[in-house]
Design a protein that fits this description.
The structure is a homodimer of 386-residue chains. Chain A is built from 13 helices and 14 strands. Chain A has 386 residues and is an alpha/beta fold.
């Protein structure tokens, strides 16, 4: 049976495909975007989980938009405007997919920073969007490029990860946030603001959402995979009602609604008096690991390799001298350290910066130090640098 | 922001929209396809649910295809051929959506029986398929029509609900099953066999799956919403590997994977020594309700109204004299009984048989008797019959 034209264009996710190799005995994985399983707030969810059998109503069909008490919580917690609404998703990945299916016709123009989140490249690829890249700088997208793109190409959406970008870790400055919001309003481009790493800031102050400067021009995707637990598949998309309503229609087709027991457990967790402390602890654990990885890289990276400091999130982006970074990642896996080559974060035909994405949240400090040793050995031999 | 052309064609689900009205105090709902919440096997899931906090690994990211021990169980339980595979879905609704997204280009031909499952009409509508209807008889699709359609129109898929069809309750005979499989093989049409009600047979013997006669020409969708609990959103699609692999690629985009804790609880339930007894009990409860509803209808339905006996499932299909069945359903809701008018089960422009779908699984025998009184009053006044 022939595949759809849309699907024929999609490559399977390199990251998900190597996850099994990356889990082989002895391999230290800096490849996935996995939170540390030991940090999951299981103890804060324990009472909720064990009381599920006493709440049989949670096991019946639910409303497509989500479990009503959870929607109420989101409305208050995120201070939604009266004409805005929340839609619970099976992970924020689903929220992004629903947005593409509701609003992106084949050849519609969607803007992203390059390099880009792989899951978004896949979603917009499957929607057969015309994805336009703008380059990324240390404090966000290149604004001149972005304005020229908005002005001359009239894109429909701008997909952005302003807090600790995946894969680069870049966090947008306040000035960039304000300017991007203004450009979205001026050129009538809808901002899709994806903030899965927002709460994982371990340095500096949390900055306003870009969408806070253009609430009616934006859809916001939040994830509970990093601060609660990814296995539960919980996310939410918020925005004005007239844009959420079509997403609900698509979600009816997609899965009717998300798991109600999982929604109830998420709500109990978010309302737990110790949840804020859990986030504080999580940040501190990840900060320690980041500092270890950064320090090791500073000491050991050979000439021609560079990385920028990050203030949070899960990733360090190491740029390399000219080399086949895909071959490098494979050689690294043979040397028992898994990393992701930059190639996968670009569209076909784009100019690729040779680089590696290193995750620092799912390995201990001892493992991170050992991983850098193994990686540096491979970089030196593959890139011919000292 | 303009909707996609695909979405502009989709009507929201009447059934899901009236669910809130149907839940108003005093209304007896025969409208939804809801199992009875009191039958949920909560006690059989209790140990599994309460032990979730001891299994933190379930809360990490999982594989897109599903939780490995659950996939192993499906392979054995459903006796999958060596070159076949299972993919866990967020409800079988998602399985259907993934099939459409992987294999149905705009204008590709998909065959369904008319009337049709609304969720499938929505999915194939969103895929912009060219949906071709064949009429349904008491023992399955009209085979002459079906063969003519296969021969002259070369459709890609035939979507079928052979066990206790939604909305009509029709169950295909063995001869029809064998013939349809043969036609699918002969004309190279892929059978999508959707069997959510298969285990809810309370009369006669379970017949072989249609796909058992053409395993390499079929994809099978199973649901755990009727025999476990719908709130968990658990389903599975099985078929040959080369057709499951593309579904996995689409599922990566759609939601990465389904909730792992829910998959683990489902596996524990399916393996529980008392699970088979749960199904026996469920069948007996639903049989009693069916017999009550059927008896009431036999006694009270006015002239010109008819229904066929069913051997299982969740629905009775009552055909009516010529009338505005949409107006009738609305009048019934005012008279505090919720039913679904046949209109919603047909594509736009199709010849509609005036009828109502009555669910018998989510009301007590007392409520069913009262519901028929209320409904008959409305039928008499709206259709002008005695």
């Amino acid at each position: 049976m022939e595949l759809t034209q849309a699907l024929q264009q999609i490559q399977p996710s390199y990251i998900r495909e190597i996850l099994s190799d990356a889990q082989a005995p002895g391999v230290i994985s800096l490849a996935g975007g996995l939170p540390d399983g030991n940090t999951f707030p299981i103890s804060l969810m324990e009472q909720s989980l064990t009381s599920l059998p006493e709440r049989p109503a949670l096991f019946q069909y639910g409303h497509t938009a989500g479990f009503a008490p959870l929607l109420d919580y989101f409305r208050k917690q995120y201070q939604l405007l009266d004409h805005h609404q929340a839609l619970v998703c099976t992970g924020s990945q689903q929220g992004l997919d629903l947005i593409a299916r509701a609003f992106v016709n084949p050849d519609d123009k969607v803007v992203m920073e390059a390099p880009s989140y792989l899951g978004a490249l896949q979603v917009f690829g499957l929607a057969q969007a015309n994805v336009i890249s703008v380059s990324q700088q240390v404090d966000g997208p290149n604004l001149e490029e972005l304005e020229a793109c908005f002005a001359h190409q009239a894109p429909k959406l701008f997909y952005a990860v302003p807090d600790f970008h995946n894969p680069t870790g870049v966090s947008w400055s306040l000035a960039v946030r304000q300017k991007v919001a203004q450009l979205c309003l001026q050129y009538d481009v809808t901002l899709v603001e994806d903030v899965p790493y927002r709460e994982l800031r371990f340095k500096g102050e949390m900055l306003p959402l870009v969408s806070s400067f253009c609430p009616d021009q934006a859809l916001v995707l939040r994830s509970y995979s990093k601060i609660a637990a990814p296995g539960m598949r919980m996310g939410v998309v918020t925005g004005k009602e007239e844009w959420i309503a079509p997403l609900i229609k698509v979600k009816q087709c997609a899965d009717l609604h998300s798991s109600v027991p999982m929604q109830a457990v998420l709500l109990d967790l978010l309302q737990h008096p110790n949840f804020d402390q859990h986030i504080v602890t999580l940040r501190s654990i990840y900060q320690e690991r980041y500092q270890c990885l950064a320090e090791q890289l500073r000491i050991k990276l050979p000439q021609g390799c560079k990385f920028n400091e990050v203030d949070g999130g899960m990733f360090i982006w190491v740029t390399l001298p000219e080399c086949d970074n895909f071959a490098l990642a494979k050689a690294a896996l043979k040397n028992k350290v898994a990393v992701v080559p930059s190639t996968v974060f670009y569209q076909q035909g784009e100019k690729i910066t040779p680089a590696l994405r290193l995750n620092f949240t799912n390995a201990t400090v001892e493992e991170l130090a050992e991983a850098v040793d193994r990686l540096v050995t491979v970089i030196k031999s593959e890139c011919g640098v000292m």
